[in-house]
Amino acid sequence: MNKLFRSLLNPEQGTPAEPPKISRRGFLIGAAAGGFTMAFFTPGLSFAQPEEAVENQTFEPTIWYHIHPDGRIVVNIAEAEMGQHVGTALARIVADELEADWSMVELHHVDSDPKWGMMVTGGSWSVWQNFDPLSRAGAAGRMALIEEGAKLLGVSPSQCRARNSRVTAGERSISYGEIVQQGKLSRTFSEEQLKEMPIKPPSERRLIGKETQALDIPDKTTGASQYGLDASVENMVYARPLIPPTRLGSSINSIDDSAAKDIDGYLQTVTLDDPSGTVPGWAVVVATSFHAANKAAQKVKVDWSPGKTANVSERDILEHGRELIETPDKGALVVNEDGVDEAFSNADTTLEQDYIAHSVLHFQLEPVNALAFEKDGQWEIHTGNQWQSLILPVLATALDVPEKNIVMRTYMLGGGFGRRLNGDYAVPAALTAKAVGRPVKLVFTREDDCRFDSIRSPAYQRVRMAFDAEGNPTGMEHHATAGWPTQVMVPAFMPEASNGVKFDPFAIQGSAHWYSVGAHRLRAISNDLANETFRPGWLRSVGSGWVNWALESFMDEAAHQVGKDPIEFRLALLKAEGKNAGSAPNSVGGASRQANVLRRVRTLSNWEQSMPADTGLGVATSYGQERNMPTWTACVAQVHVSRETGKVTLQKLTLVTDAGTVVHPDGARAQVEGAALWGASMALHEGTMLENGEVRDQNLNGYTPMRMRDVPAMELEFVESTETSVGLGEPATTVVGPAIANAIFAAVGIRMRDIPIRSEEVLKALKA
Asked: Are 408 and 348 in contact (CB under 8 A)?
């Protein structure tokens, strides 16, 4: 999907000029002194420090980095930075093959441009997709530097080696910077040459897998980093949206802004006309400051005609999902092996259970926002975004301009988690700017952000298994229904299932498991009522989060049904045979590697230890996000359950991860820790319900993510590996919820099949 290497960068294109620095601390001091007024900086620049133009005698063997005469190596990062240190990981890959001095490496987060190919940061794809092409780009630069360095040293390239940003021949050496200054570097590489470029064996790597500080930490620490909320330009006005009662189908009958006219700074209320259909029935309040826009928005009265989902509830959507599952001809048969029906008709015993996952908000720290303006026929959108390539065509439709006339400027994200994959919040900013004819900074309040969130859909699932007389599985069915983000936002990404029905792969992956269970059937069903009520979105771990909740909870129930230890039961099914044997390059070893992390977590957690009263251990395992890029993960959760209150206390999480080659160990650990805690938060603390077509909880008085006091002890381990580097942003999220539910059963003997797990439901089950 992501074709990294386009044509070589034309030297005339260059990179933008360096902006003056802005202190985040200075901004905060200024805001405290003078109200909510953004500091100004040169518009149109990335949050990283862009480098001087390429024509100033720099060497750029590919579009992905260039080397300056002073030896600085600037790596272009086309991925969004949202706390995962993606720039450091990608630059580490380039620098290792380039044999660079790491202290001379800098990052440049680029703005949108077709030359970068598909710009998307999600799905745990960044390192996995970029490892090979960036390695070859680094190797190409090393080759060219050795060739030119050899000329300057008066020796043959075969006599030279590169190390630590120097080319050395015997006792003599020359730095990369000196080669750029003195040499005549003209070597370029075609896409075909880059694909064939040899790279180092893992044994010769000197940076990949070694500890280092992330390059973005200093600016984050000092406050120099730029986020979307920091963006500002001259002549800018502020805006706050007035969001209609339903996501789709609402229309405005009338607007009364008479009371708002008493607010100092209030300018006008704009009714949006959106050809893209992204924000139907919207109005936007415009003022000279956000404070004024916020106050005025509370005074403006809008009479809406809501859409048809104004009375839809969470229960309605889940009940509709159950009905869809019970309609045999609905949905896509993602897996449909021969013999499933015969396995159940001939089974000695069977097991069937239903599982529910409720709505979840993203609730990222920085509410969504966007600054938009047009200058000389070119539109600029300043915002934090995870998928520029998805929203640019939508903006073009909304503004009725060619896509080439729009550029998205890059900023850090104050939390992404999949919310900013859907850049819909840029559309009302752009439409408002078009209507008022000046730059508009649209800022959502926390409540606006929650109401407009692309939530994780409520999901209903049914899982069945057939067993022979010895308790061995002979067949399995998994039926899953939810709102489908891909169907709503990018249907072109939907493949066809075996029965010819297209399906959302990100709403079912995670259930195409690596267990050998006999004949297997997997059916994915789009919940059309969910799609009509809200805009389903991708949330950290995407469909794998709620799908694995059902799968691994069920596998635990199946183990107990046949009287086997939950880990031993799973290990017996991870046979690494047939379709589960794995293949190069991404899943070498197949199910045997999942079995390996499961065995290791058993040892690390002291699985067979005696536990105190009402305390138990539960296990879950997964391959993560996608079957063709498995990140083998296993988790053991330790919980205590209060029989008096039903409160579940998560005491410890033990996780073992095999992600192949780990590029940035500290970043990898942070990714797994954050993902696991996100999973724990969704299991025990956060979650909302739909009422009257909208989410019930719209701020922290009702929505309750995990607090610091709830964080458990954590023990993490990575499998040392030189296999393909895969994803780490999401897999740990998928295993924590079912591990907790399975631990509750081990502690007090009750099964929780709805997530999040609330104390009142636990207490009710205890008393049943």
From this structure: no
